[in-house]
Amino acid sequence: MASTARKVVPLAVALALGGVASSAIAGGFAIGTQSGSGTGNAFAGGAAAADDASVVWSNPAAMTLIPGKQIAGALHIVSPSFKFSNNGSTGAFAAPGTGDGGDGGDLTYIPNAFFTWAFSPTLSFGLALNVPFGLATDYDNGWRGQLQTLKSEIKTANINPSVAFKASNTVSIGGGVSFQKIDAELTQATPSAALGNTKLEADDTGFGYNLGILVQASPATRFGAHYRSKIKYELEGKQTFDGPAAALANASVKADLEVPATLSLSVFHAMGQQWELMADATWTGWDKLKQLTAIRTTAAPALGGVGSTAAQLAFNWDNTWRFGAGANYKLSPQTKLRFGVAFDETPTNDVDRTSRLPDEDRKWLAFGVQWKPSKTGILDVGYAHEFIKDASISSGSPPTLACPPHCLNGNFKSKVDILSIQYSASF
Questions:
Q1: R_g of the chain, CA atoms, integer Å
Q2: What percent of the chain stands above pLDDT 90?
Q3: How many helices and strands in the chain, by DSSP H and E?
Q4: How far apart are CA 183 and CA 255, in angstroms?
Q5: What are phi and psi of 234, to 5 degrees?
Q6: Contact of 66 with 58, CB cutoff 8 Å
Q7: Which of 155, 169, 336, 354 could make an S-S bridge to 370, C-beta 3.0–4.6 Å?
Q8: 3-state DSSP: the chain helix, strand, coil percent, rounded to 5?
Q9: Is 6's pLDDT higher than 90?
Q10: What is the pLDDT of residues 249-305, one digit of tens each?
């Protein structure tokens, strides 16, 4: 990767989205919450909707339906909860420690910004600044599962310029390039008092692309399809310890990570003057994520030489589908009510699931309201609740604490609440 890009892209992302903290609020560690207008519909029909400048992310082809110039800024307030209950943990995880970890979730704020500019009736430009992937779980120090995890955090920030072309009266196409920065931090306790707790920190910058098409099948109905490519990272960083023997264990590390491709198929239909209906199906290619292995690039005399394994996290994830359906009701020329439901599959399984990401299938229930205070301004407020299926785990902490005999056994009760606020202005 060119050295100039490695410097410029992270700086641009940091300026745009500085201080972002993320929490996984869709299947895997994808961030399902992007536009504030979409929250009230549980993001149903995103590739066919054309409410505001957020289409830059959901399907750039739809930019041809946004006249003039528009900017949209959204803030998502996310409250996740992950609570563990022990069920016969064994080996190194049998000791109760300080308890079951408390609530591994924490209040999170996720900002997004979007801009569109119609150069002409057939050509548009757009820019998205957003957070596509993220993960944050944080458990109490000393809890029974501390040898598996204390804190897990993955943060991404994305810059996505796009263009759209209206090929005919009924067909528009669009595409763009993503410049994405990722930071990862994983901490856990070790069985050795001399080593104490360990922290693995690594980051990288990656590049991807997206393509979309929008078809106006009739004055009332349109279809959209949107593909977003995978992005490969070569993470580089360090593993450090806080015990008295840390100097003999600290080392530089590297790891390969791939965030998945997605494909969305959506439909939007205006039924009469007041109702709008929408639906979508989104495929995510998680099956490439099998294992995250951090390899030492410098020697740690107490633990291993160059090329030895510093940390290992099994995924063995499967591809997933997300299905959504939503409706809007135009209460007045200035006010629109939104409703939505969705089902979001988890990519993980009962064998490989750990407390770092106790993910399970999710059901969304959402509602929202749009208000137009002026001819050029639009305010959207949306709320969504994710009902997450109880997640069972029975796993260890490889490579040193394999299960069996060292198994953290139990169940997680989880949920997520999302409040989104977005303001869009045309000029």
A1: 23
A2: 87
A3: 3, 20
A4: 12
A5: -115, 85
A6: no
A7: 336
A8: 10, 55, 35
A9: no
A10: 999 999 999 999 999 999 999 999 999 999 999 999 999 899 899 999 999 999 999
Per CATH, domain 3-426 is 2.40.160.60: yes
- From the list 71, 81, 73, 76, the residue with the least C-alpha distance to 20 is 76
Phi and psi at residue 56, to the nearest 5°: -55, -35
d(CA 125, CA 381): 26
CB 2 within 8 A of CB 205: no
Whole-angstrom Cα distance, residue 47 to residue 394? 38
Beta partners for residue 258, in sequence order: 232
Report DSSP letters for 212-273, one per residue. EEEEE-SSSEEEEEEEE--EEEEEEEEEEE-STTGGGT-EEEEEEEEEPPEEEEEEEEEETT
C-alpha pair distances (Å), 244 with each of 193, 204, 256: 8, 30, 30
Query: CA-to-CA distance for 376 and 56, rounded, in angstroms?
Result: 19
Q: How many C-beta atoms lie closer than 10 Å to residue 169's C-beta? A: 7
Q: Which two tokens stand for residue 73?
A: 């800024």
H/E element holding 28? none
Look up residue 31 and give its amino acid.
I
The total of other beta-carbon atoms located within 10 Å of residue 247's CB is 11
Residue 72 in contact with residue 130, Cβ under 8 Å? no
